[in-house]
Each structure stands twice: as structure tokens, then as C-alpha cells.
TrEMBL record:
Chief location bin: cytoplasm
Location(s) in or outside the cell: Cytoplasm, Nucleoid
GO MF assignments: DNA binding
Source species: Larkinella rosea
Role of this protein: Binds to DNA and alters its conformation. May be involved in regulation of gene expression, nucleoid organization and DNA protection.
InterPro entries per record: YbaB-like_sf, YbaB/EbfC
Pfam families: YbaB_DNA_bd (PF02575)
Alphabetical keyword list: Cytoplasm, DNA-binding
Protein name: Nucleoid-associated protein EHT25_13880
NCBIfam families linked to this entry: DNA_YbaB_EbfC
GO CC terms, sorted: bacterial nucleoid; cytosol
Domain of life the protein comes from: Bacteria
Length: 111
């Protein structure tokens, strides 16, 4: 039999675990590169750039526009790479708390 009080308790626990998991997203990291590895960007699970490495051969005034494009490409790749890690981290933190209810999708909370 469905117990509403148990469900409310699970929701509260889910919220607490989700908050805790979100607070630890800064520990997840992922990288992206462009220009055959000449530009390397590392981001964290909060989608913040935490490291940028540029090959010294790219740092010439005449290559400024290309360098900017490579930094953008590497950053976007790193952000794309970290997305699955974020989702898996949040799912793992809340695993088993709420029953699988048809039509009740929590996927939007995981991104």
C-alpha cells in the first residue's frame, strides 16, 4: 500500500542529497582540447574554467584570431565532456530514494 508519509520523507531525503551532490560538483573535472592539443581547457562540474594551457608556438600577434577560436573550441569541448559526469554524479547521489513512477521524470533536475 502506498504510504504518503514515506513518500514525503523520501522527497526530503532526495532534496538533501541533491543539494549535497550539487555542492560537491566542483570536484568533478573534465578537459577539452583543440588545435591538435595546442590549446587545452579544464572545467569543473560547476561549468567553470579552472585551467587553460596554450602552446607557446600559438602566442604570436598574427595568430590572435586563430588562438581565440581554438580557446573557444577547447572550452566548449570541455563543457560538453563534463555534462555526462555531472548527470552521473547527481544520479548516484540520489539513487534509490524515489520509486520509478511512470510520467514522473526527474531528468530535468539532473542537468
Amino acid at each position: 500500500m502506498f504510504n504518503m508519509m514515506d513518500m514525503f520523507g523520501k522527497v526530503k531525503e532526495f532534496q538533501a542529497r541533491m543539494k549535497e551532490a550539487q555542492a560537491s560538483l566542483n570536484t568533478l573535472t573534465e578537459s577539452g582540447e583543440s588545435g591538435a592539443g595546442m590549446v587545452h581547457v579544464t572545467v569543473n562540474g560547476l561549468k567553470q574554467v579552472i585551467r587553460l594551457t596554450i602552446d607557446p608556438d600559438l602566442i604570436r600577434p598574427e595568430d590572435r584570431e586563430m588562438l581565440q577560436d581554438l580557446v573557444v573550441a577547447a572550452t566548449n569541448k570541455a563543457l560538453e565532456n563534463v555534462e555526462p559526469k555531472i548527470k552521473a554524479h547527481l544520479q548516484k547521489a540520489t539513487e534509490g530514494l524515489l520509486p520509478n513512477i511512470p510520467g514522473f521524470d526527474l531528468g530535468n533536475l539532473m542537468s
